[in-house]
Task: structure prediction
Amino acid sequence: MVLLAWACAIVTGIIAITFLPFASGGHDPLAVPLAAMAWVLGRVGLLLVPVGALWLWVERMPAPAPPLAAPPAWLVRVTLGVCVLIAIVMVLVTFAASNSQLLTAITAVVATLLIIRVRRSVRATRTPLLRFRSRTAAAMLVVAPIVVLAVQTIFIDTATTHARNRVIANSAPLIEEIERYRIRRGTYPESLFSIWGDYKPSIVGVERYHYERSGDGYNVIVREPSIDFGMRRFVAYNPLDRQRVTVHEQDRLLLDEAGLDADNAGHTAIRVLPQPHWKLFMFLS
Result:
C-alpha cells in the first residue's frame, strides 16, 4: 500500500505541475519551466516501461539457488542505466527551459539522490518480502508513465484553451479603460509602461498584459503559457484587426511596413480566435 500511495502521489504531482501554468491564480515565474520539465518527464519516463516489464519477467521466474539470490546483474545495470539517462535528460531540459543555474543544480542533486536510492533498492531484492515489493514497483513502472503521458496528451489542449479564454476575458477592464481614455482625450495612450500591472490576467503562467500604440489603433499582447519546446505563443488584440507581433527589436527599427509584413510571414501560424479582434501568433523559437 505504501508503494501504491507513493506512486499515486508522484503521478498526481507530475500531472499537477504539468497543468500548473494554465491554472487560475497569481503569476509564478517557475510554473512554465517546471511544467516543461514535467512534460518532458512524461515522455522520457516511457523508458521505464520496458524496464518494469523486464523486472516482472525476471520476478516471475523461479528463484535460483540459493533462494535469496540477488537479481541478475544485467537487469540492475539496465535499470540504473535508464535512470541515469533520464536524469541527464531532465537536467539538460531544466537548463533549457529555465536558463537558471540554481534550478538546474537542484535538479541534478535531486536526480543523483534518487539514483542512489534506486541503486540501493534494486540491489536489495533478496528476501521474499522485498521480491514482492519489487514486483509491485515493477508493475508501477509499467503503468505510471503511460498514465502520465495519456493525461498530459488528452487534456493539454483543453487546459491551453481554458487559460487563453480566461486571459482574454480578464482583459476586458483594460480594453474598456483604453477606449474611455480615447473618448476623453481623442487619442489612444502612447504607452502603458509601468512597474506594476494593475490589470491581472489571473493565470499562473501569464505575467501581465503588454500594450503598444499601433497606427490608428493599438495592440494588447499576452504571451500565453506553452510547454511546446521550440514554440512561442502570443495572443494579440487590435480593435482594427491589424495585429502585428515582430520577432526582433531591430525589425521595428530597420524595416518599413512592407518589410514588417514580410517578416510576419515567418510566423509558424496566425490563427483568428473566436473572440472578436483577437489572434493567436505562434513562432518557432
Notes: DSSP finds nine helices and five strands in the chain. The chain has two domains: 2-156, 171-284. The CA atoms of residues 113 and 119 lie 10 Å apart.
